[in-house]
Amino acid sequence: VLAAVASAVLFRAPELRLRPMHHDEANQALKFGALLENGEYRYDKADHHGPSLYYLSLPVAAAAGRKTLASLDETVLRLVPAGFGIGVVLLFLFFAGGMGRSAAAWSALFAAVSPVMVYYSRFYIQEMLLVFFLVGFLALVGRYMERPRAGRALGAGFFAGMMYATKETSVLLFGAAACAAALTALSAGRHAAGGSPKDKPRLWHFAAAATAALAVVWMFYSSFFANPEGFLDSVLSFKVYFERAGEAGWHTQPWHYYLSLLAFSKAGGGPVWSEALILVLAAAGSIFLFRKRLGYGRSPGFMRFVFFYAVVSAAVFSLIPYKTPWNLLPFYAGFLLLAGFGAASLIDCLSPSRARFIILIILAAGSVHLGYQSWRGNDRYFADPRNPYVYAQTGTDFMKLVDRVNGLAGAHPDGTGMLIKVIAGPYETWPLPWYLRRFARVGYWTDAEAAGGFEGASAVICSQEEAEKLDSRLRDRFQPEYYGLRPGVLLSLYVEEGLWKRFLGERSE
Known about the structure:
Blueprint: H1 2-12, H2 23-38, H3 52-63, H4 74-93, H5 96-99, H6 101-113, H7 115-121, H8 127-146, H9 150-166, H10 171-188, H11 203-221, H12 229-246, H13 257-263, H14 276-288, H15 300-319, H16 329-349, H17 353-379, H18 396-411, E1 419-423, H19 426-429, H20 432-435, E2 441-445, H21 448-451, E3 459-463, H22 464-474, E4 478-486, E5 489-496, H23 497-508
Parallel strand pairs: 1-2, 1-3
Antiparallel strand pairs: 3-5, 4-5
């Protein structure tokens, strides 16, 4: 347990500013900045996900003394998912009552060092918050199925509400959990109907859980009653996500994409990445849990519920054509629980102490290897496409553009008040709004005609497509430079000649 908690903190908390902001992170950051500065939030059903990320970022920003978008930085923002990533590891320990103490401890350790869990715990997007609330929901639903209690029902309802307040697509996870509960009941056989009257589910328990969930959802999506239409908009957003799932575009991947990503990845001359240890142990745990006797402190019904959830949710996410690496996290949480159960069961079933010692050595070595991959993925390959969890990631060359613009502001008489014109489509624009957040005069256009003239502009940033149209107009008065935004995407920076000479003069001095 100590190893799990220490690993969770050491892999998630340090050097949160190291990786450039992903365009999705920058988008979320500006959304939160509006809430931070104005105290206002309105749910957007056409884009963005649920509001919990923004509201739960407020205490962290307040503790750091940040009151404006300009005062925020990557560390403050990413502390939010990092904290919830550590919280997932701690929540796994609460599964001890259903899966056994050693199994829960192994699951917590695997979650703490898993490369994909660590990488996205350092991402300012909704995913790690969703996993945290999901794990709490699964724990309480599983325990409720074991022994129905009103407190467990209310707790499950709260976590369900927080899941939906984090991502509307959590309805897929509710469907997977419902299927898992039904399959668990069927697998229990006729004897499942036994037990005392106190151990029977009560209708009012479900009503209380639904009330708790709806209360949470209503508060968040209505912006705490300031925007009553927000809840209805969240329901209407399903149309957008169904269309996006069916027309995945370049996000389209084969059904085995997630499993292949976890089992073995190697790109170019990069290193091998693999979480096959988790997959193998999860398979072993799945076999062990269908034995007649699971051992002291382990509930067959509880673990079978986890198993069915993991299988059903993995199948659902694998069948949806639209795939991004972080979408595997909700079903991978189930795999991690099964892996911990598999590790503990393997140790228990080996009677000679020498055999147990060998298994322990293998598990320890495998955990160290997972931890090494996590360190490598976040310290050396944090923005490298050869890391399988790097997806449409902003490259390090882009940070040279940011440094250049900041340097130009230092040479300009108006400083961060100099006029910057950005001409690019949305895909080429982000994460510029985050990195130019301290500049007072920045305009964004999608085409050169709409931008008008360039008199008075100190710098022009444009996509490669727009640069081809503008180059002949700008070269007489602007000095061009070129930077990579992400693999295959270039940005052109045109600097006004007078400013360029002042900049070079200050640098030479």
